[in-house]
Structure formats: C-alpha cells, structure tokens
UniProtKB/TrEMBL annotation, chains A, B:
Keyword Transcription regulation attached: yes
Domain of life per record: Bacteria
Natural source organism: Loktanella atrilutea
Protein known as: Transcriptional regulator, LacI family
Any one GO molecular-function label of the UniProt entry: transcription cis-regulatory region binding
Amino acid sequence: MKRAPTLVDVATRAGVSYATVDRVVNGRGSVAEKSRASVLQAVADLGYIRNVAAANLAQRRIYRFCFIIPEGTNAFFDRVCDIVRAMHPSAGTDPVQLVIERVAAFDPAALAACLTALAERPFDGVALVGLSDAGVDDAIGALRDKGVAVLTMISDMPTPARDAYVGIDNVTAGRTAGALIVLSHGGRAGRVLPIVGALSARDHADRLSGLRETLAPTDLTFAPLIEGLDRHEVVEARLRAALAADRSITAIYSAGAGNAGLIRVVAEMSEAGRRPIVMIHELTPRSRAALEDGLIDVIIDQRPEDEVAGTLTLLRCLADRRPLPQLPQIVPAIYLRENLPAAVDPALLKGSAA
Amino acid sequence: MKRAPTLVDVATRAGVSYATVDRVVNGRGSVAEKSRASVLQAVADLGYIRNVAAANLAQRRIYRFCFIIPEGTNAFFDRVCDIVRAMHPSAGTDPVQLVIERVAAFDPAALAACLTALAERPFDGVALVGLSDAGVDDAIGALRDKGVAVLTMISDMPTPARDAYVGIDNVTAGRTAGALIVLSHGGRAGRVLPIVGALSARDHADRLSGLRETLAPTDLTFAPLIEGLDRHEVVEARLRAALAADRSITAIYSAGAGNAGLIRVVAEMSEAGRRPIVMIHELTPRSRAALEDGLIDVIIDQRPEDEVAGTLTLLRCLADRRPLPQLPQIVPAIYLRENLPAAVDPALLKGSAA
DNA sequence: CCGAAAATGAAAGACGTCTATCAGATATGA
DNA sequence: TCATATCTGATAGACGTCTTTCATTTTCGG
C-alpha cells in the first residue's frame, strides 16, 4: 500500500520541475510541447490523480451550484426545493453553496432569460428541468462556453446540449403504469383514460408512449387523451366532461400534475359507489392523503431525493473536471396504500450526496 | 459570506493557545477543566466544524472499511460483492479502502469469529448482515469498544448492538407483495403459498408478517408455509410437494433465496398450461431471465446499490465522528416485465457515495 | 551573433489540521 | 519553601496543492 503519487512524483518522473508540471496540469503559462508531452506521459504512467481535497484546501474553494426549479401551483416542485434546501447541511464535509432560482413553468423564454442572467454570476454548475427550445439551447451553450457545468434533471433535453441528465426513464415509467393497469384488470377488458399536462413536455409524452406500448397488445382500449396543463381546475373540468361522455372507463392514468382536480372528481365517484382504478405520479401531501383515503390506487414517484443527490454528485465531478461516474439508475418507487413510507418532516431531512 | 471558523479562531475566542485547543478537541494531554470549558464554549459560539479534508490531508488518513458478506449459493450476495468492489474507484475524491470478507450464511459462530478476527486489523468500520445471536452481539460490542464503527445492512439487529442500519423495511416489503397479489386477483378469491429461507432470519420473517397483515382482511387464504433454507434443491422439492398436495394455489410469494428451484417448478407448470402468480425478491441474472421469459410476474428488489452507497456514507460519518445524516429511505424497486432496467455490466458500475 | 521572447527552475507562503517538542507557568503536597 | 506534577504557550514541520515571484536558460528571428 504505497502512497498515492503526487505532483512532485510526476515532476521527478517527467524530469522537469514542479513548476512546469503545474503549468501543464493547470493550463497556465507557456510550456514547450515536448515538456507537456513528458508530463502527461508521467501522469499516465504513475496513474496520478489530483488530490481534490488538498486542491480545494489551497484555493479555499467553494462550489457554487444553482438549481432552476419551475414555479407554479405544483407541489412536486415545492418538494424538490425542500430537498435541495435540505442538502445544504449535508454538504457537511465539503463546501458547497446551493442557490435555488424559480422560473415560470413551461416558459422557455423565462428559462432562457434566467440562464443568461446566471452567466453573470460565479456559478460552477447549474441544474435545470429540461425544456425543448432553441433559445434555451443557446443560453445553455453560452453558459457551458463559460465553463459552467449544465445538467438536466427530471426531464431531459437533446444530448449534446447538456453535460448530463439525472432522472428516471419516463418511457419505462409509463410502461410500469401500463403493467399495473393490466395487472389490476386481471385479464378482463377495460378502458383507460390518459391525462397529461401537455404533450410538449417530454416527460409526459414519454410516459404516455410507454403506456400505449404496454397496453397495445391487450384487450384494454383508450379513451381520448386529456391535456390538463398541469392545472387542477382544467384537469377537473375536462375529466368531468370525459367521464360524463364515457361511462365505460375502468382506469385513469395521470402522467402530469394538477391531480388535485382529479382527486376531487374521484372522491365524488367514490362516494357515489364506484370509481375506476386511478394511478398518478409523484408523492405529495395531497396525493399521499388520497392514497391513504382510498381515492387512488397507485402513486409512481420519481424519488426526487435520489435525483437531487445524483445531480449534486455529478455537478461536483463536472466542477472538478473528473470523469463522470455511472450513477445507479434511478428507479421510480411504486407506492400502494400498503407500502407508503412514513411521512418525513422535510426540515429534518438531510440527504446524502453520494 | 465569511470564512468558516478555524481552530485558530477558536483559540483566539477562547483566550487560549492553539495547542490547548488541539488538546481539547483531539483529547490528548491534560487540560484544566476551566480551559476545556472555554474552548468548548468557543466552539459552540463560533459554530466551528472541523475541516475534515484538511485533517485527512495532515494525517494522510485512509478510511479502512470491511464488508462482511454471507457466502453461499446466493446470487444476490454475489451481486452485493460486485457493487462493493465497484465502489472502489468511486472513492475517487477520497481515500477509502474496502475489504470484503465472506462468511458462511446463517452461521452465527462463523460470523462472530470473523468479527473477532477483524478486531486485530486496523479497520475504521465494519458492515455486516445482521444475525440475531448473543455471540455476534458480543463480538460487535468488542469491536465497537475498540472504536470501530459497526453497522448492519440488509437485515437488522436489535438497535443497541449496532451504530446504524441501512436497508429496506422488510415488513413494508411484505405488505407491498401482498398488495400486488391482491391487485392481481382483482377481487377474486385465491390461495397464497409463502416461502421463506428460515423464520429465524429477521428479514424473511418481517416480510412474511407484512404479507399476512395485508392479506388478512381479504378473501385470500394461505397454504402452509414452506421453509426452503435458501437452497434451491430444498425449495424445489418442498414446493413440488406442496403444489401436488394443493391444486388451488393461485399465487406464490418467495421471501427468501433459492429461487432457482422455484423457477424450475414454475417453468414446468407454465409449459403444462397454467401457473400461479409468482413474486420473488432480488434482481439476479436468473430472476431477471425468469421475469423476461414470463415465468414469474414481479421481482421486488431491495436496491443493493443504494444500500451499499448509504452504508459507505454512514461509515464515513461514523469514522469522522460526525452526526449521522438522515439518509433518504431506501424503497424497494418493483420490477415487472415492462420496467426491467437495462442490464448493467457490473464491471462498469461506479456507484455514488452520495 | 545579438536582442527579445519563450520556456524553465527554484522557492516561498498560503490553506487548516495534526503531531511533536520544549520551555515556562501554575498548582500540589510535603 | 522546595520538589514535583500538572498545565499552558510558542513554534515548527508535515500533508498536497495552488499561486506568485524572480532569476535563469533556451530558442529563434533578424
């Protein structure tokens, strides 16, 4: 168990001075091509890896990261904010400073403006919920050109735009929902009503296509899709209309938000004696209550705790210019009445980065 | 944004020298009670927290942790080993050395002996799969008296014995299985055959009680419990006998290991035309294949990646004598045919401690 | 071959903590 | 009051990296 190689070892091996090694690895000053090559060779030979702790100590480095979270009447994103806030103390051992910015949901212009403004501030990394938009792409590009790491969470964007994506596979999530719906029908026929916020939201669209894929070979049919804009009044009104128009619906799958409206409608049906199977996404105080009260049957939760923790891990790697580890895949949790975890006071939550 | 307080600041505030502060916080030499008090007061006033990176740098510290993993014909524990091994590089930024010891499964004497032997080696922490046994308790106590952190994973032990537990709530896992069985029966009657490795294994017993609890208020009845000792031949033989004796079984729930035997039996039934609903635990190459082949219906996986990562996080905290963070609860993943994640080459896996 | 530019080496001080040593101060008991 | 013990302060060198300065060497164009 020999000591890990240091920059001094690299210098010796390369036959140059420490100063030259430093110029190479930290890219400053001018170095002859020959020297640069021999230093890099020595680094490779020795398997040198920078001691990040020592480096951070010397520079009194603070990691500054920004989370851009959609703003709106969306309990899920409030939860994400709570989790990010709870991560502060979790830094514990290392100096991370987290800032949350909230921008209007589904508003590419606002998001792009936010990103542009961020470029003026000294951030090492930015995490945002992906949105497909050329302006956003450009703003991200500008940030990354400045050396700021940018990654998407929850909903992805085209690969080249961001450094990484942390989140669930939404097609698979939709398939999961489909499989559970199939399971709950036990081979009998049925009719499924899908609800999304907007088909332009990639995560919603992905879930829907996963659902379709899974139900295609079965006896289950689809009622016309509802777009609820993630707003509970809209969801409520359109759902009510759809149910009135079609009495044969046996299952409802809501891939987006605005489920308060859905729950109101289902509560009425439930009192009236019969309600369809209901599956929705994201654990929130309201969805939890509905599950406990028997108004809905399944909650598929994307585990934002894991997503935020993974995001932080990757942001740190990117900031250190280290290779990105392959994080364990984030698998959505399936909550039924019987396996709801005890409610956790978010103020007490302290996540783990790693 | 002012600089975090250092020991020099503490010394100044307490009106003593750095040397005295050092004596207090690192508990060496002798210090007058008055000095100790004023130092501690200063620490509290300033909210001093030791800079672990600097401390580790100065001591050239290496964290040495040992994972004790049950040995046997158990693919799940092989997977755990792979994950632990894959964590090595994940250390990445910090100097962690991991050692794996394997001991015979379900053998308290062997486990206790292993723990005792470990006390002679310079470990900072040990993780083991809990086993209820007085000898094991004593061995753990001896280790902890030496200052070694000890925590249980996967299966717990009585609280006072270990420093922490990382793993799923097995009662809830059993309830989950029960709920899915109920769902899949869609209100029809049925008969459930439970299989465990041994009732003396706490995780198995917990799962069974969760299952019983959930099925109690339903129309579903229980066939007599099978104890399969986690060995596939035993499981196969006893299952065959049970199925021959009782043709009315509509679901099988296996809470333990040895599922290769179960799969063989189910494969035959499947070919013969009809098989019951089958739910088992843990994602392994074999169980994955069985799910893909339509021989079983659900795999409940306890996500050992998360368990190992969480274990490492806590071991580090314990080694640093830092307060333990509240890790996000580990929720078992429910895998159906439709949401099986892509198989990951374990050699490529690099986990996140965070 | 000379002058300017480019490349290199040597060194020192910082970051916050650990560890060690040694001299001096205060307290304790006889 | 003296001889011990018990405390305390001052200081210095590590750990591995960053950052800067200054002097020296090499290279190259003209």
